[in-house]
Amino acid sequence: MFYNLYMNSRNPSTSIYGKVVKGNGKTDFAEIFSEAKIDLTNNFCMTAGINFEYFLLNGHYALEPRYALRWQATPKHALSIGYGLHSQLEDVGIYMVETTLNDHLTIRPNHNLNFSRAHHVVLGYDFLIRQKCRD
Fold it and tell me: CA within 20 to 30 Å of 20's CA: 44, 94, 117, 133, which one?
């Protein structure tokens, strides 16, 4: 991830318009995913996975579980439920925002910002209209 940032904004507490972000450089983001599908019975299957993310700019990482169960009630009807924890990076500029304290010390208050996270739950119903389509 290469960045070249220059952003101005108005400070809400002082109403002064000035530099918020200025800088360029690079950082990396790594992501690895693995999953396995297991047939529990003829009608039930389970999928389990794990997702790993690592942001080199500040060293934060996320280890996220993913699960799903599927019940094939009949040859044409199936029900499923799934769960996953999902993380998201902010735009690189958010981590690079600078603030000046006491007119001489410049800090980056968002540099150590962690991922945004969300729990996702999904319910599904599948209905097979026909077994085979015509060529």
Answer: 117
